[in-house]
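Meet my pick.
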Amino acid sequence: MLNQRVSAAKKIATELHRAEDAIDETMIRIAQLAATLPAARRETNMSAIVGQDAMAKVANALAAAGEVRQLLTDAHMALTVTQKEVGLGARMFGAGVKPPEARLVDPGSNDGAAAPAFARAS
């Protein structure tokens, strides 16, 4: 039974990571398109009005892809909870760097740089 759960979890993790990679690639491609449109307009000396509708739609597509990415990361976190619920504990089923645990740092302690005056506690 445990082997079946581990096998299922590995399949789920594989597909989840593929989906996460796919949305990242999609966002990269849309962002590249979003950068190319105004550059092409400027290179051809066209009015800012030319292609505005298309640029707005591409910007909306990038925002929508960001929402999809958020949903996938939310699903990822939900699956982490499910993993524990089905008795698989803290096993790692995917590759890659895991996010660091959140922690508070003292102002100015990051990278040895001093914090701006407005950020320091008085």
